[in-house]
Amino acid sequence: MKIRYVLLSTVLCLVFAASYIARPTAAQGAPKRIEVTASKFKYEPSEVTVKKGEPVVIVLKSTDVAHGIKFKELNLQAKVDKGGTGELAFTPDKTGDYVGHCSVFCGAGHGSMTLTLHVTE
Fold it and tell me: Which GO terms describe its cellular component (predicted)?
């Protein structure tokens, strides 16, 4: 009788352990979507904060002419046509502050058109 109890206990423990180990991990949530509007010669908002390791989609909209965004340090780039929308999907893998510049010449103030991306823990 004692052996049956020990065997039953062992089997139950193994079943419990197997079900715990085999439990599917929660799917990572949908990417955080951040809308950024580009117009001569600014981005609105001009600063965005995201978390390291969390998927992000920057939805870039143009209100006037073609624009783009390029974060050289992160090797990220997107372009959007006049009046259009583009998306820049990424998962930041390092913290820091990164400055993106308009990557499509849009006029005399083009050089001052920047978007700051803050990546935090």
Answer: cell envelope; membrane
